[in-house]
Design goal:
CATH class: Alpha Beta
CATH superfamily: Spore Coat Polysaccharide Biosynthesis Protein SpsA, Chain A
Number of domains: 1
Number of helices: 8
Strand content: 15-25%
Strand order of the largest sheet: 5-4-1-6-8-7-9
Distance between the termini: 62 Å
Shape: globular
CATH topology: Spore Coat Polysaccharide Biosynthesis Protein SpsA, Chain A
Structural class: alpha/beta
Order of helices and strands: EEEHEHEHEHEEHHEHH
Radius of gyration: 17 Å
CATH architecture: Alpha-Beta Complex
Length: about 210
């Protein structure tokens, strides 16, 4: 049964914040819960994504209770080996059951207010099955709009032992949404130093004022 409507709109889209990784470069800290600008990084992502979708869920494999109060629900991977973003996408599709999901990572807190609209426009324009963001000179595969009716395909891909997100995308009609004009979308935080730099540049008003004195 096809549970993915051809044309996505806000009421049929579930926002998914991917926070299921190990965060090894962050010293094992759960990146979504790292504070930026006085709030957990994932909270900034949820706040920016929420107006664009019907509901927001967080894909997390630890600290589930802490995440639960920051979104409508928390979904965990059915694969228990930190199988990467595709596992989180599959878990979210299974939870949503119908319509679409739009995915963003928990460590990129500058999600643009028209991300979903751009992805949906690209999908329609190219008569595609799914849409993925393009920016900073390359595909940005975790910023994606996906129909839940591809869950079976994704589960088969994962069951075969595959984990490469680009390879799964290539097996379907994929559109790309150009976000080169908003490069800050793809600024992500992998280390404490990157967190500090992003906070000073985008979240620390006092630091900006001091730099201009």
């Amino acid at each position: 049964m096809d549970k993915g409507p051809f044309s996505p709109n806000r009421s049929t889209i579930t926002g998914v914040v991917l926070a299921g990784g190990r965060a090894t470069r962050m010293g094992g800290m759960d990146k979504g819960l790292v504070p930026v600008g006085g709030a957990p990084m994932v909270k900034h992502v949820v706040q920016r994504l929420s107006p664009q979708v019907a509901r927001v869920v967080i894909n997390a494999n630890r600290n589930v209770e802490r995440y639960r109060c920051l979104a409508d629900a928390v979904v965990t991977d059915s694969h228990r080996d930190f199988a990467g973003p595709l596992a989180g996408m599959a878990a979210a599709m299974q939870w949503a059951q119908y319509g679409w999901i739009v995915t963003v990572p928990c460590d990129s807190p500058l999600v643009p207010g028209d991300l979903v609209a751009r992805l949906a426009a690209a999908l329609r324009a190219e008569d595609a099955e799914l849409a993925v963001a393009w920016g900073d000179g390359r595909l940005q595969p975790v910023f994606a709009l996906l129909p839940c009716n591809l869950l079976g395909s994704l589960q088969q891909f994962l069951a075969s032992g595959e984990r490469k997100i680009d390879k799964w995308y290539a097996s379907h009609r994929m559109a790309t949404a150009d976000l080169d004009d908003v490069p800050e979308t793809f600024l992500n935080v992998n280390t404490p130093e990157e967190r500090d730099a992003l906070e000073v540049r985008y979240f620390d008003d006092g630091a900006r004022e001091r730099r201009h004195e």
